Structures are given as structure tokens and as C-alpha cells.
User: Which sequence fits this backbone?
């Protein structure tokens, strides 16, 4: 296992670039084709959604087909809710991503109010650790703000500390089982929360004298400029601060675009890391990174802003680059000020990148939502791929559209579903009514 590619994090190797397939995992041919496409684009490893045991069998076929074609790319099984699925996939893929917020929620056999929480956690994780140890499989403990366990939320609320505690618990589990091929990720759709939590977790690991590799990412970043700049600020700012071994830029687009922008982000981080492109006067940041490639320029400016924002507040931003028009520069400035919560000029629209669990055209729906609902700076609207994770992940949004099966979607108000599962156009009409009614109460 994993003889052909070293995928343990080591900063001397640079950053490992990741993406995730958004084909149906049971469509083996399509998923194999997308994995190959991502590898050819420059992905170092590819994650595949594994919602249940049927997909375990499909993932095994995907793995075998790639091997038969002599295509060497490590696969990461993305697992929520079902420890058995994680355990099965750990026998044949290089890495398994589990979500500590829901890893144990479906297990009742070991749970007992008489056993302390940590003992329960140990019992539930034991089998996975034994299998990973036997097969040398890496575990990614993927903490997401939108899917923290009720147990953690009831004690720590929806705080940065809650995210860090959730990761630290699994660090304790890995110590207990003496298995250390573990990556951690702490993600949020709030760029600042994601950055603060990663920094705090990194400090806590250093205090414990054991620093595990970090996988970085901003969730529900959506697409186009906003999606790229969110990742540039969050991921780039942390990379410039010396954190992070691997990352995924999440975009609600063809996943190949995630890799294309990831490569630009790595190049931009190299460009700006030792140069002096930033000055500050009266809480106004001045950035003069004179890159000519537009997306690389976004990446570099975003990373520089992120690095400053990680430790200091700022009130305004001035960007200079004679290679771009005043309009282009203002567009980037407005985008960054909106993401940093300094000046809101439009609706905050978040969207998951989609994955093998999505059963409708999320990219088209996101585009419709942006077209019709972008002018409400006081609102946050979400477009999510599936009902499994969607409601939790969009819980702090005012409204959302979440996909179900057979191209149907439902409208949500906060965490509450307020429509039936209906065709997209019907849901968009329903959402329009809801948004207009909400304006009456302003
Ligand atoms: S919310 Fe989106 S990315 Fe997350 S599991 Fe569902 S479809 Fe996949």
C-alpha cells in the first residue's frame, strides 16, 4: 500500500494539491475518468465520496481500474456517519477522511451514559485505528464547523475553541492507539474562523510537542472570483504563516479548476513570501503585487491580506497594479472587503463544491441564485448539494436550496426545511417569495 507515492506531509516536498470527484461514485467509468483528469491537471491525491457500502464496492473497482491502467494516484475515501464504511475503505485506499462530528453518531452499541465520553470515543475508533495500522492507511480527521457533534456544541457552542477541542480529542485517540499517520483539517465557511482555529490548533499541538500535518480549506466557498479569493485569503494566509502541508481549494465548478487555481496559489505564495508588497498606514493596507496573470494576482493579494488579517485588524484596503483596470482593481478590493466583513456590498452566497452525493445541477442553480439574489447585503444564502450534510453546513445562512434525489431540491430557512422537494424552478420561485417577504420585516 502507498509504495508508489509518498503522501505523508513533509514541507520539504512542497504542498500536496487535492481535489474531489463530483461524479456519482457508482459510475465507475466516469469517476475513473475524472480522477485521471485531475491527476493530469496536477492533483497529488483525489478524494471520492463514499456514502455507503454500495460505494465501497464501487471505490474498490475504481482503485483496481486505475491500477490496471497503471495510473498511480493516491485515493482518499470521504466518509461521514458510517464507521464501517471507513473501516472497509481503509483496507484498500491510501487515506480515509472521517468527520469527528458525525463519526460516532450512528453507533449506539458502545455508547453508554455510564462510560465517560472519551472512553466511548476510544471504543468507537478502535477498529478503524487497528485496520489503518495494519494497512498503513492515513487517517484525515476532518473537523467542519457545520457538522460538530451536539456533545461538543453543548459544551463549547459554535466557537473556534469547539473546533479545536474536536480535533484535540482525536489527537488523544491517536496517542492512545500509538498510531500517528494522521492529518487534521479544521474547516469553516467563515474564512476568519477557519484561520483562527487552525492557528490555535497548531499552537496546541506545539504545546504538546507533537505537530501533525494540516490539510487546509475553506468550505462552501462557491465559485468564480469569490470562491478563489476566499481560499486565497484563508489557505494562502496560513501557508504564508508557515502552516499547512496539503490543501484543497473548494469551488462549485469543474474540479479541474480547483487544481488550476491551487497551482496558481502555490506560485503566488512563493512570489510574495519574501518580498515586500504590503505596507500599512492608519489601518489601511496597501498592496502592490504587480502580477500580470489575473487569477495569480488574486491569489497573491488574497494570501497577503490573509497573513495580515490572521493577527491584525484593518479597516480599508488599497490595491495597486497598473496591469489591470480601475474596475478590475475595485472588484477585487470589494470582494476582499466583503469576505473580511469590512464592507458588505452584496449578498453573501455560499455553496458547497458538490461531490458524489449531489444529484442535481448545482452549478446551474448557483448561477441562478447569483443572478436573482445578489443584491441583499444583509442576507446569506446557501446552495448545497445534499441533505446529508447540507442542512448542518448551511445552518448559519438565512435561506438555502439543498438538493435531494432525482434532480429535486428543497428550500430551507436556517436549518428548517420550508418547502417540499420540488423541481429547481419551483424552488427558485419559492425562495424569491421568501426573500421578498423577509424584506418586509427589515
Ligand atoms: S454538502 Fe455538498 S460537498 Fe458536502 S457532502 Fe453534500 S454534496 Fe457533498
Assistant:
Amino acid at each position: 500500500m502507498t509504495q508508489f507515492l509518498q503522501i505523508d506531509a513533509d514541507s520539504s516536498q512542497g504542498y500536496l494539491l487535492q481535489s474531489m470527484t463530483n461524479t456519482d461514485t457508482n459510475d465507475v467509468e466516469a469517476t475513473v475518468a475524472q480522477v485521471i483528469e485531475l491527476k493530469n491537471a496536477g492533483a497529488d491525491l483525489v478524494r471520492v465520496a463514499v456514502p455507503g457500502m454500495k460505494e465501497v464496492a464501487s471505490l474498490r473497482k475504481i482503485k483496481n481500474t486505475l491500477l490496471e491502467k497503471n495510473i498511480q494516484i493516491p485515493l482518499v475515501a470521504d466518509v461521514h456517519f458510517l464507521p464501517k464504511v471507513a473501516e472497509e475503505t481503509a483496507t484498500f485506499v491510501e487515506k480515509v477522511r472521517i468527520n469527528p462530528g458525525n463519526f460516532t453518531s450512528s453507533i449506539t452499541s458502545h455508547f453508554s451514559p455510564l462510560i465517560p465520553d472519551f472512553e466511548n470515543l476510544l471504543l468507537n475508533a478502535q477498529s478503524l485505528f487497528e485496520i489503518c495500522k495494519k494497512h498503513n492507511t492515513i487517517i484525515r480527521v476532518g473537523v467542519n464547523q457545520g457538522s460538530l457533534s451536539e456533545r461538543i456544541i453543548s459544551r463549547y457552542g459554535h466557537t473556534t475553541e469547539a473546533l479545536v477541542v474536536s480535533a484535540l480529542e482525536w489527537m488523544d485517540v491517536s496517542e492512545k492507539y500509538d498510531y500517528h499517520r494522521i492529518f487534521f483539517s479544521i474547516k469553516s465557511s467563515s474564512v476568519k474562523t477557519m484561520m483562527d482555529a487552525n492557528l490555535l490548533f497548531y499552537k496546541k499541538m506545539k504545546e504538546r510537542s507533537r505537530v501533525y500535518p494540516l490539510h487546509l480549506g475553506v468550505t462552501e466557498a462557491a465559485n468564480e472570483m469569490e470562491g478563489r479569493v476566499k481560499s486565497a485569503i484563508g489557505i494562502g494566509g496560513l501557508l504564508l504563516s508557515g502552516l499547512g502541508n496539503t490543501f484543497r481549494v473548494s469551488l462549485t465548478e469543474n474540479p479541474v479548476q480547483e487544481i488550476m487555481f491551487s497551482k496558481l496559489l502555490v506560485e503566488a505564495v512563493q512570489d510574495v513570501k519574501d518580498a515586500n508588497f504590503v505596507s500599512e498606514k492608519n489601518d489601511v493596507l496597501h498592496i502592490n503585487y504587480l502580477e500580470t496573470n489575473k487569477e495569480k494576482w488574486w491569489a497573491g493579494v488574497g494570501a497577503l491580506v490573509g497573513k495580515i488579517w490572521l493577527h491584525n485588524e484593518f479597516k480599508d484596503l488599497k490595491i495597486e497594479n497598473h496591469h489591470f483596470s480601475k474596475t478590475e482593481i475595485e472588484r477585487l478590493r470589494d470582494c476582499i472587503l466583503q469576505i473580511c466583513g469590512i464592507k458588505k456590498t452584496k449578498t453573501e452566497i455560499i455553496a458547497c463544491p458538490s461531490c458524489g452525493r449531489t444529484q442535481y445541477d448545482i452549478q446551474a442553480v448557483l448561477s441562478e441564485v447569483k443572478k436573482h439574489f445578489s443584491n441583499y447585503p444583509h442576507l446569506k444564502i446557501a446552495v448545497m448539494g445534499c441533505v446529508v450534510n447540507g442542512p448542518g453546513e448551511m445552518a448559519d445562512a438565512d435561506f438555502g436550496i439543498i438538493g435531494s434525489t432525482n434532480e429535486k431540491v428543497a428550500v430551507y430557512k436556517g436549518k428548517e426545511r420550508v418547502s417540499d422537494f420540488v423541481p429547481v424552478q419551483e424552488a427558485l420561485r419559492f425562495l424569491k417569495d421568501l426573500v421578498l417577504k423577509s424584506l418586509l420585516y427589515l
Observations:
- Residues 352-355, 357-358, 384-386, 388-390, 393 surround iron/sulfur cluster (CB under 6 Å).
- The chain has three domains: 11-220+243-248, 221-242+249-345, 348-440.
- The chain has a mean pLDDT of 93.
- The chain has 14 helices and 16 strands.
